[in-house]
Design goal:
This protein is an all-alpha fold and 252 residues long. Helices cover 69% and strands 0% of the residues. The mean pLDDT is 94.
Length: 252
């Protein structure tokens, strides 16, 4: 495997995130990085498929594109005319006179770094056999479950929030009755599926860093913990916490 696939992927991601950083400063909205997130993986995957593979892996290219486009469109629709996301607005207030530098380092470059880490399975470019291995079908199945779980969860929450009568209320129906963050669960699961699918494409012991990282981020850093802190003083949400798992669905 050409080692420079890692270098060129990093260069593409750096250039891509610097573009969005400049755009964010013009718009005074760092929240656009969330829209850029999914599309960044499509860019990296497309670059690798066209530049480094003898023949494109259309299955891998397809599932990454479907996921990335769906996520970018969903976030764009969700944030339309809402102003800067509350997380980035809070950081902007906290950083005050250091907004530009802190935005570059702690939003765009940091997310670019994690994008490179999570995209590691896409950088495995050894030529596979012509027939899919049984566990690759398992990986695709896991990806599909995760993709549907995330997509349905996002759609249900978006529809819930669009109802004026639900303003200030906590979503507790649909997939949100099984766990408090079904969209994050789906995101985590689908990257494990992508990893399993790419095992025969290269060095799995490098690629596995990807699903481990996204799981760690969602469970411990920027996913569940951040939203849980937002609602820590909300009595309805605390009742929700007592009855519903945080991430993994409680089916029985």
């Amino acid at each position: 495997m050409p080692n420079n696939v890692y270098f060129f992927s990093a260069f593409i991601i750096l250039s891509y995130m610097l573009f969005w950083f400049v755009l964010a400063q013009i718009k005074r909205d760092n929240g656009i990085v969330d829209v850029a997130w999914g599309m960044g993986f499509i860019l990296v995957c497309s670059f690798i498929e066209l530049r480094f593979r003898e023949s494109p892996n259309f299955i891998l290219w397809g599932i990454v594109t479907i996921w990335g486009l769906r996520l970018a469109v969903h976030i764009a629709i969700r944030n339309h005319k809402r102003g800067e996301d509350w997380r980035y607005a809070a950081w902007r207030e906290e950083w005050k006179g250091r907004v530009v530098l802190q935005s570059l380092l702690r939003v765009f470059l940091l997310q670019g770094f994690f994008m490179w880490i999570i995209a590691l399975p896409l950088m495995q470019i050894d030529t596979p056999g012509s027939v899919l291995q049984p566990y690759q079908y398992v990986g695709l199945g896991i990806w599909l479950i995760g993709f549907l779980w995330e997509s349905i969860g996002d759609y249900q929450l978006l529809q819930f929030k669009r109802q004026a009568t639900n303003r200030g209320k906590i979503m507790r129906s649909g997939l949100w009755s099984f766990s408090r963050h079904p969209n994050y669960f789906g995101e985590m699961i689908l990257w494990w599926g992508i990893f399993i699918y790419t095992i025969p494409l290269g060095t799995w012991w490098i690629a596995i860093i990807s699903p481990i990282t996204i799981s760690w981020l969602l469970m411990r850093i920027s996913g569940v913990p951040m939203l849980e802190r937002k609602y820590q003083d909300n009595p309805e949400y605390q009742d929700y916490v007592k009855k519903t798992n945080a991430l993994f669905p409680k089916l029985f």
